Amino acid sequence: MGPINDWHFAHNIVVGANASITGIASAANVLINTSTASAALVVVGIVGNPVAQFYNSTDIAGSPSIAIDQYGTLITAKGFSTNLSTQSTTYTALTTDHTINCDATAAPFTVTLPTGGLANGQEYYIKKLDGTANVVTVTSAGSIDGLANYLLNTQYQSVTVQWDAGNATWWVY
Hints:
Blueprint: E1 4-5, E2 13-15, E3 21-22, E4 30-32, E5 52-54, E6 66-68, E7 74-76, E8 84-87, E9 91-92, E10 99-102, E11 109-113, E12 123-128, E13 136-144, E14 147-152, E15 158-164, E16 169-172
Parallel strand pairs: 1-3, 2-4, 8-10, 9-11, 10-12, 11-13, 13-16
Antiparallel strand pairs: 5-6, 6-7, 12-15, 13-14, 15-16
């Protein structure tokens, strides 16, 4: 199916795979059903209206689960969650990780931050949970605030790092 071009929609449009819609759609809902993993939805809104609203498929008549307003503000109906894992031995962070809790009770270990396949601005929160003298070393092939390593020495010590692809470095915040 090729593009659907229209300037005025006053009804819902259901679109199957490999289709696109262009035009001004101030009163329309666009529902997309595709099984293509690489499919993307780009929505351009009208000033004063939400740019995009996303619904749970079982609650399409209710409030949106996620909305993005015309200023780029992300609005969630039920909060925001990210991936959380707890590690107790040497670990290489995945691009899907976000919060990495570290339990070094048994022995010191290293958490290695990736430098490839990352979105610019990707963040990790890394925290040492245990009260032992065992150190959690955070390292990367790129620098971490200009250093090769960042050490977590004490219980509940944490670090937030953000990837800067342009400078191939992790910044500490």
